[in-house]
Amino acid sequence: MRAVHTAQSAIFLIAIVSHLLAGCATWQDAPRLAYQCPHDLRFEARLYQDMALLEGQRGHAVLQRAPDGPAGELRYRDATLLAEFGLGAGQRLTALHYTGIPETVRCERVPLAAGDGTASPLAPVRPAPRDGPKPAPPPPDPDAPVQTNIRLGDGPWPD
């Protein structure tokens, strides 16, 4: 009887672990895409269903998803930048349209270098199948009034 109980526990544990691992696979982050631009400028992008996160030598940008382009280009924008990903025959190009710069900046996708010095292959450009990370809510105001159930005085309870 004890061997049957141990075997059932092991099967149950394996089922839970496999379920948790499958759940983790669905929550993977968007892959990093590396781009090389003229004048030795580089940036990395993570594309999501609703946003794109761009990180470069001069900071980062969070762009909201815009309607896709006529040829299926992925478009993301904010007040100062429109970024179009997946351009060209191999989807290796991107175009950056800045509001303050009249000329379009064209960049080419390059392989990411792995920690062991090897380069990763170029997968097709597509957004991750989930929405992007949301910022943390602002901290509570320490001076805000707090409602409690502490009663002061002998009067009736307020409604």
Short summary of the structure?
This protein is α+β, with helices and mostly antiparallel strands.
Structure description:
This protein is an alpha+beta fold and 159 residues long. It has a domain at 33-110. It is 16% helix and 31% strand. It has one helix and eight strands; from the N terminus they run αββββββββ. It has one helix at residues 2-26; strands spanning 33-37, 41-47, 51-56, 59-66, 74-77, 81-87, 93-98, 105-110. Strands 1-2-3-4-5-6-7-8 form an eight-stranded antiparallel barrel. Strand 6 and strand 7 form a beta hairpin. The radius of gyration is 25 Å and the shape is elongated. The chain starts with a helix and ends in a 49-residue tail after the last strand. Mean pLDDT is 77; it is low at 1-5, 7-13 and 17-27.
Number-wise, the strands total 8
What structural category arises from helix and sheet content?
alpha+beta
The order of strands across the largest sheet is: 1-2-3-4-5-6-7-8
Largest sheet: 8 strands, antiparallel, barrel
Q: How far apart, in Å, are the first and last alpha carbons? A: 60 Å
Along the chain, the helix and strand elements come as HEEEEEEEE
Number of helices: 1
User: Could you tell me the strand content as a percent range?
Assistant: 25-35%
Question: What overall form do the CA principal axes indicate?
Answer: elongated
Low-confidence stretches: 1-5, 7-13, 17-27
Mean pLDDT: 77
Percent helix among the residues? 10-25%
Rg, Cα atoms, Å? 25 Å
